[in-house]
Amino acid sequence: MSEASLSPAERSAIVRDSLAVGLATGAYGFGFGAVSVASGLSIAQTCVLSLLMFTGASQFALVGVVAAGGAPVSGAATALLLGTRNTLYGLRMAPLLRWRGWRRVAAAHVLIDESTAMGVTRDTTEGTRLGFLTTGVSVFVLWNVATAVGAVAGEAVGDPRTFGLDAAVGAAFLALLWPRLRDRRNVLVGVLAAAVALAAVPVTAAGVPVLAAGGVALLVGVLGKRQDPTEVPGPDDVAGRHH
Amino acid sequence: MWTAVLLAGVGCYLLKLAGLSLPERVLAHPTVERVADLIPVALLSALVAVQVFSTGPELVLDARALGLAFAVVALLLRMPFLVVVVGASVVAAVARLV
């Protein structure tokens, strides 16, 4: 980690890449807004989720569980379990960002897949901060605007089955899962978890199957022996970078 | 519902802050690291399965499965996220009309 200053060209390249990711990911907030109100949350609850929780997978998980008829507390538990992913990103990013005090408290809010991916690959603290912050803030602004627009549009649509909004949720989760499926062990865990969840659907309350599948992660993690580095998304794993 | 929204929202923020504030050695234990890495994989897979193949307490195979099939193809072709998600909706909606 050197302290050399970035050249103007390097700065603008990082900003450009980060804004592209922000734009692509932010647009995706429209889908969240629409799906959330279709799941039975109010427009206000939907917007508060994007403002306060601000981590897409957890937000989709909460509304997904509620849409399936699960208790709000099951939805919240699933959202929190998925949110532990950001803790891992934070552990990785803290020594790279080297922020203290209020800056760290503020930075934590935009600590998500995309900002981590666009910050973690830089060679300097300055580059890491620039990529992390530009991505995090642009995603935050656009995600929230798009959520509000999507929520209003979703309310107008009414039944989520119209326009196939119910199918969008499964596709959204698959897109979030996809970059992790390059690892063979992860594919195995994914298949097992899906099987456990489906087996639990007829015999448990809604919301429980997904949490039960979390047990697969626990089991394989405890029994597994392999040493491997913490998985952190790279620039190719986030929206707007598929070209 | 408001309680769940607010508690989970604040909780998710605190999980982020904890990551930036805790010493890195928390991850030093290989079991903790493995479990933490696998949790998102297991939960996201389960969410895909439950969202697509169930309605309430019943397992069902309907237009959503076609939407998911489209999503798989789109992801294999490295399409942008938005195309994957919107395309899956359109495929499911059209399948219901046919």
The general outline of chain B is elongated
Structural class by SSE content of chain B: mainly alpha
Compressed to H and E, one letter per element, the order of chain A equals HHHHHHHHHHH
Spatial order of strands in the largest sheet of chain B = 1-2
| Intertermini distance of chain B | 37 Å
- Helix count from the secondary structure assignment of chain B: 4
Main attributes of the structure:
heterodimer, A: mainly alpha, B: 98 residues, two-stranded antiparallel sheet, 4 helices, 4% strand, AzlD domain-containing protein (chain B)
Would you write up a description of this structure?
The complex is a heterodimer of chains A (243) and B (98). By secondary structure, chain A is an all-alpha fold. Chain A has helices spanning 8-27, 29-38, 43-53, 56-67, 72-97, 101-109, 113-120, 125-157, 165-177, 184-200, 208-223. Chain A is globular. With 98 residues, chain B is mainly α. Helix content of chain B is 77%, strand content 4%. Chain B is built from 4 helices and 2 strands; from the N terminus they run ααββαα. Chain B has helices spanning 2-21, 30-53, 63-76, 81-97, and strands at residues 54-55, 58-59. In chain B, strands 1-2 form a two-stranded antiparallel sheet. In chain B, strand 1 and strand 2 form a beta hairpin. Chain B starts with a helix and ends with a helix. The chains are: A mainly alpha (243), B mainly alpha (98). Chains A and B meet through helix 1, helix 3, helix 4, helix 5 and helix 6 of A and helix 1, helix 2, strand 2, helix 3 and helix 4 of B. Chain B: It comes from Nocardioides cavernae.
